[in-house]
Protein: Chorismate dehydratase
Amino acid sequence: MDKPRLGHINFINCLPLDWGLTEGGLGAGLEIRPAVPATLNSLMVSGELDVSPVSSIVYAQNPDKLLILPNLSISAPGALQSIVVVAKRPLADLGGRPVALTAKSATSHGLLKIILGKAYGVEPEYSVSSLSLADGVLDGADAALFIGDDALFAYHNRRSGLLYYDLGDEWRKLTGGAMVYALWVADRGFAARRPDLLQLAYDKVRDGFRYGLTHLEAAAAARAGATPLTAEQVVRYIGLLDYRLDEARRQALTNYYRLAADRGLIPAVPTLAFAAVKP
Ligand SMILES: C=C(O[C@@H]1C=C(C(=O)O)C=C[C@H]1O)C(=O)O
Structure:
């Protein structure tokens, strides 16, 4: 095994990294597994990947198995267009009502529960669903949570009579801070066995992002056709995200964990344990 097994989110939010891994040539020497976050979460927890982005809540559920890679995340200081609730009635009126949660997410399930409980004082009946708006998810629910490209599509193609809420904006109103949606993590056993391959994977993800962010307009122009957005909208969307994990974002992450632990969504607020890689 000389190629690290790297998970990769196949949403537009990782277009910069994707561009670096492909056009920038940084994907050479990696076994890359593209999938939606929920799939990467379970592959990482079951030990089928060595390094991967995961929903940030997954680290708090598995701190004994995972190490965080430094200064990488998918975060946003506020509104971001890709964590969206589409509702038939205002959020404040969802108490006891059916609310569908996208099967692709984990972090945003907790985010919505925290926001509805703390900011709106309501406790809906939640269920996980794979249905899209077009498939009729709102036939059986009063609101639906979408993430990633599904959310971007819904956000940019609004239907009359429905209400649209950007949870990044709702989170900023509730906490005054940023939200950390995803982290890059390594398997602890892999990190101990193959520090050389861990460093290789880390260097490629870090440099892949750098390459893609430097060439963002070219990446957006080339890939917009395969997305629900125009090239300009892709560039604007990526500009709403922040891929760092600096002190401010580590505090924002811990704040999310604190509120998630208060609701019993995670067993405890974990210490953030980082992989020993050279930045
Ligand atoms: C900003 C996003 O970040 C993500 C949200 C995740 C989640 O809710 O669990 C997981 C990974 C990221 O894709 C997004 O998907 O829109």
Remarks:
- The chain has a mean pLDDT of 97.
- The chain has eleven helices and ten strands.
- The longest helix spans residues 195-214.
- The CA atoms of residues 177 and 252 lie 6 Å apart.
